[in-house]
Amino acid sequence: xxxxxxxxxxxxxxxxxxxxxxxxxxxxxxxxxxxxxxxxxxxxxxxxxxxxxxxxxxxxxxxxxxxxxxxxxxxxxxxxxxxxxxxxxxxxxxxxxxxxxxxxxxxxxxxxxxxxxxxxxxxxxxxxxxxxxxxxxxxxx
Length: 141
Prior knowledge:
Order of helices and strands: HHHHHHH
Low-confidence stretches: 1-16, 34-45
Number of strands: 0
Shape: flat
Mean pLDDT: 78
Strand content: under 5%
Protein backbone atom coordinates (compact mmCIF):
# COMPACT_ATOMS: atom_id res chain seq x y z
CA UNK A 1 0.00 0.00 0.00
CA UNK A 2 2.80 2.43 0.86
CA UNK A 3 4.45 1.84 -2.52
CA UNK A 4 1.14 2.42 -4.31
CA UNK A 5 0.58 5.68 -2.41
CA UNK A 6 4.08 6.88 -3.35
CA UNK A 7 3.48 6.07 -7.02
CA UNK A 8 0.08 7.73 -6.92
CA UNK A 9 1.35 10.88 -5.24
CA UNK A 10 4.25 11.06 -7.70
CA UNK A 11 1.84 10.89 -10.63
CA UNK A 12 -0.41 13.53 -9.09
CA UNK A 13 2.55 15.80 -8.44
CA UNK A 14 3.78 15.40 -12.01
CA UNK A 15 0.31 16.04 -13.37
CA UNK A 16 -0.11 19.04 -11.08
CA UNK A 17 3.10 20.58 -12.44
CA UNK A 18 2.01 19.94 -16.01
CA UNK A 19 0.59 23.41 -16.58
CA UNK A 20 3.74 25.20 -15.42
CA UNK A 21 5.93 22.85 -17.45
CA UNK A 22 4.08 23.52 -20.70
CA UNK A 23 4.79 27.23 -20.65
CA UNK A 24 8.43 26.53 -19.80
CA UNK A 25 8.63 23.95 -22.57
CA UNK A 26 7.30 26.31 -25.19
CA UNK A 27 10.13 28.70 -24.41
CA UNK A 28 12.69 25.90 -24.10
CA UNK A 29 11.64 24.33 -27.39
CA UNK A 30 11.72 27.72 -29.05
CA UNK A 31 15.29 28.23 -27.93
CA UNK A 32 16.36 24.67 -28.74
CA UNK A 33 14.76 24.38 -32.19
CA UNK A 34 14.54 27.93 -33.41
CA UNK A 35 17.83 29.34 -32.26
CA UNK A 36 20.19 26.49 -33.16
CA UNK A 37 22.17 26.84 -36.36
CA UNK A 38 21.65 23.24 -37.44
CA UNK A 39 17.88 23.21 -36.87
CA UNK A 40 15.64 22.35 -39.80
CA UNK A 41 14.17 25.49 -41.25
CA UNK A 42 11.10 26.37 -43.25
CA UNK A 43 12.23 29.92 -43.91
CA UNK A 44 13.41 29.47 -47.49
CA UNK A 45 10.01 30.36 -48.97
CA UNK A 46 10.55 33.76 -50.60
CA UNK A 47 6.85 34.14 -51.46
CA UNK A 48 5.87 33.70 -47.80
CA UNK A 49 8.26 36.27 -46.36
CA UNK A 50 5.43 38.19 -44.64
CA UNK A 51 4.12 35.00 -43.02
CA UNK A 52 7.60 34.04 -41.88
CA UNK A 53 8.13 37.49 -40.38
CA UNK A 54 4.76 37.32 -38.59
CA UNK A 55 5.55 33.81 -37.30
CA UNK A 56 8.95 34.92 -35.99
CA UNK A 57 7.33 37.91 -34.24
CA UNK A 58 4.69 35.64 -32.65
CA UNK A 59 7.42 33.26 -31.45
CA UNK A 60 9.35 36.14 -29.91
CA UNK A 61 6.19 37.45 -28.25
CA UNK A 62 5.62 34.09 -26.55
CA UNK A 63 9.28 33.75 -25.60
CA UNK A 64 9.41 37.24 -24.10
CA UNK A 65 6.12 36.91 -22.21
CA UNK A 66 6.70 36.95 -18.48
CA UNK A 67 5.72 34.15 -16.13
CA UNK A 68 2.63 36.10 -15.04
CA UNK A 69 1.40 36.25 -18.64
CA UNK A 70 2.27 32.63 -19.43
CA UNK A 71 0.46 31.45 -16.29
CA UNK A 72 -2.77 32.92 -17.69
CA UNK A 73 -2.63 30.79 -20.85
CA UNK A 74 -4.90 27.75 -20.67
CA UNK A 75 -3.50 24.22 -20.83
CA UNK A 76 -5.37 23.64 -24.11
CA UNK A 77 -3.83 26.76 -25.67
CA UNK A 78 -0.35 25.82 -24.44
CA UNK A 79 -0.65 22.40 -26.05
CA UNK A 80 -1.95 23.95 -29.25
CA UNK A 81 0.95 26.45 -29.29
CA UNK A 82 3.39 23.60 -28.74
CA UNK A 83 1.91 21.51 -31.56
CA UNK A 84 1.70 24.36 -34.05
CA UNK A 85 5.22 25.54 -33.28
CA UNK A 86 6.70 22.06 -33.47
CA UNK A 87 4.93 21.28 -36.76
CA UNK A 88 5.93 24.66 -38.22
CA UNK A 89 9.60 24.00 -37.44
CA UNK A 90 9.92 20.24 -37.96
CA UNK A 91 6.86 19.04 -39.87
CA UNK A 92 4.82 15.93 -39.16
CA UNK A 93 5.49 14.11 -35.89
CA UNK A 94 8.49 11.85 -36.42
CA UNK A 95 9.02 10.29 -33.00
CA UNK A 96 7.52 7.43 -31.02
CA UNK A 97 4.84 8.30 -28.47
CA UNK A 98 6.26 8.58 -24.94
CA UNK A 99 5.07 5.99 -22.46
CA UNK A 100 3.38 6.09 -19.10
CA UNK A 101 4.06 7.83 -16.67
CA UNK A 102 5.35 10.64 -18.94
CA UNK A 103 1.98 12.44 -19.09
CA UNK A 104 3.52 15.70 -20.22
CA UNK A 105 5.34 14.06 -23.11
CA UNK A 106 2.29 12.03 -24.07
CA UNK A 107 0.10 15.14 -24.18
CA UNK A 108 2.62 17.04 -26.25
CA UNK A 109 3.08 14.14 -28.65
CA UNK A 110 -0.69 13.77 -29.09
CA UNK A 111 -1.04 17.48 -29.80
CA UNK A 112 1.81 17.46 -32.33
CA UNK A 113 0.54 14.26 -33.96
CA UNK A 114 -2.88 15.89 -34.43
CA UNK A 115 -1.26 18.30 -36.93
CA UNK A 116 -0.14 15.50 -39.25
CA UNK A 117 -0.91 16.33 -42.85
CA UNK A 118 -1.14 20.09 -42.36
CA UNK A 119 1.23 22.29 -44.33
CA UNK A 120 3.85 24.29 -42.50
CA UNK A 121 2.23 27.46 -43.80
CA UNK A 122 -1.10 26.44 -42.25
CA UNK A 123 0.50 25.75 -38.90
CA UNK A 124 2.47 29.01 -38.97
CA UNK A 125 -0.75 30.93 -39.69
CA UNK A 126 -2.53 29.00 -36.94
CA UNK A 127 0.26 29.78 -34.47
CA UNK A 128 0.15 33.49 -35.31
CA UNK A 129 -3.63 33.63 -34.96
CA UNK A 130 -3.58 31.74 -31.67
CA UNK A 131 -0.89 34.00 -30.20
CA UNK A 132 -2.86 37.06 -31.30
CA UNK A 133 -6.08 35.71 -29.72
CA UNK A 134 -4.36 34.65 -26.50
CA UNK A 135 -2.75 38.05 -25.97
CA UNK A 136 -5.95 39.90 -26.86
CA UNK A 137 -7.80 37.85 -24.25
CA UNK A 138 -5.11 38.39 -21.59
CA UNK A 139 -4.88 42.12 -22.28
CA UNK A 140 -8.66 42.54 -22.05
CA UNK A 141 -8.79 40.98 -18.57
